[in-house]
What does this fold into?
Amino acid sequence: MEVVILDEPAALAALAADAIGALLRDRPDAVLGLATGSSPLAVYDELAARFERGELSFAAARGFTLDEYVGLPADHPERYRTVIDRDLVSRVDFGPGAVSGPDGSASDIPEACAAYDRAIATAGGVDLQILGIGTDGHIAFNEPGSSFASRTRIKTLTRQTRLDNARFFDGNVDAVPTHCLTQGLGTIMEARHIVLLATGTAKAEAVHQLVEGPVSALWPATILQHHRHVTVLLDEAAASRLQLGQYYRETYAGKPDWQGI
Ligand code: F6R
It folds into this structure.
C-alpha cells in the first residue's frame, strides 16, 4: 500500500488523473471503477479539464459505479447513476451505455446484483478503481461487519453514513434511503489498481485504521491491506492520525519520478 500525503487537493487529483491518463493511453478500452460522493470530485474535474484540452479520451473506455441507493425515483438528483453522469460522464466522451451502475430499482434485487458482477467480469474486470472512504471505514457501501468475500448485494446503511450523506438531501437524514446495492469487498478486491482518496479530519480515524489498523470487518477498508496495488491519496488533515506519517512523506519525497503511482 502506497500512502501519499500532499496538502494541495489539486495535486492529489492530478496524481489520480495521471494514473487514469497513463492507463487510457496504454489501453484505450480500459475499465474504470467510478466512485460517487465528494472525494473523487477534484479528480473528475481534472479529467474533464484534460479531456477539454484534448489530452485524453474515454471513447473506448467503460466504467462501473460502486453502489446505488435503493428506492430513489429514476429522476432523483442524488441517484448515483445521475450523480456520476453529472460529475463525469456528461463532461467527457464515454460512448452511449459505456458506464453502468447497480440497478437500485430492480424488482429482482439478487438477480440484478449477480448480473452486475457478471457484467464487470465480462468487461474483463476493473483496471483502475477510484474509491472514497466513509467515516465509519466503509468502502463503496460495505458497512462495518461486511464480509471480506462479499459480492454485489443489498446492504443496510448505518445511521452514521445516513447522517454523513444527509448533506446531499437538504440536511434531512430521514430522506437518505436506508438501503443500497453495493459492490462487495470481494468484488472491489478484484480491481487491478485501487486509488483511494480522502481529505479532511473527519476521515482521519478511518484512514488510520485503513493503513495501520488490524485487518478487521469492523473497519471494512482494512481489507485493502491485502491488495497488491493500492494507492492512498491524502491531505494533511486526513493523514493527521497516521502513526507513520513522516515515513510516508519521506518515502514519497524520495520516490523516483519514473515510478508513478
Ligand atoms: C460512493 C461510495 C462511498 C463514498 C464514501 C465517502 O460511491 O462508494 O463509499 O466514497 O461514503 O463519501 P464522500 O467522498 O462523499 O466523503
In short: Strands lie at 2-5, 31-34, 62-65, 67-69, 99-100, 128-131, 153-156, 179-182, 193-198, 230-234. The pocket of fructose -6-phosphate is lined by residues 35-39, 66-67, 132-134, 138-141 (CB under 6 Å). The chain has a mean pLDDT of 97.
